[in-house]
Amino acid sequence: xxxxxxxxFLFLGNDFRNSGLAQAxxxxxxxxxxxxxxxxxxxxSVKEEKGEQMLVELxxxxxxxxxxxxxxxxxxxxFSKVEDMAALTFLNEAxxxxxxxxxxxxxxxxxxxxxxxxxxNPYKMLPIYSEKIIEMxxxxxxHEVPPHIYSITDNAYRNMMQDREDxxxxxxxxxxxxxxENTKKVIQYLAVIASSHKGKxxxxxxxxxxxxxxxxxxxxxxxxHARWKAITEIKNLMI
Length: 239
Known about the structure:
Layout: H1 4-7, H2 20-29, E1 31-36, E2 40-50, E3 53-58, E4 63-67, E5 72-73, H3 93-105, E6 110-113, E7 116-119, H4 131-137, H5 149-163, H6 179-201, H7 223-238
Antiparallel strand pairs: 1-2, 1-5, 2-3, 3-4, 6-7
Helix pairs in contact: 5-6, 6-7
């Protein structure tokens, strides 16, 4: 288990919005999402339906008339900051954006969406890549630990060892999204668990502690070169 100070960057704490009172309040207000020029979407409660339009009340008390087609349903409070967005009752753009935003503001940068792991770049170092964290994810099923790039990597590694088939991890995103850093974390995790696996099979001394300075430099000018270098390093670990 991670240190207490690290838990807040991985585990979801108790939240009033998940209480029965919050659930009842949400149901009574008929909460929905409506378009917002500034925020993308904002919360509103339905006051009246008028044919193809709805009269809604915003959080500041103002009322507005919105087309039904522009309204997206809001999930119950029990889904607040959910770890896997595939579990959402209403899987729409507004709910996905809201969930990612809420988790990000709680310093939870990793979120699952079905088979995918969504990462929001914190633009700062978080204490969630230490050896203790690596040990926490070793051999664990995805639902047993919080969302993390280590969980995705461990799952790929276990499938490779069990099925003896090549596995792929693809990091995609816009420039500055954190693709290179997460690729480094994939290689870091593979290096540690592959060394541990190799150490069990032979008596040669194996370096147990990872060192970021020894990780391959995956910051070339071309992203394509970076991806091929990562693939080469991973294949070397499979030998």
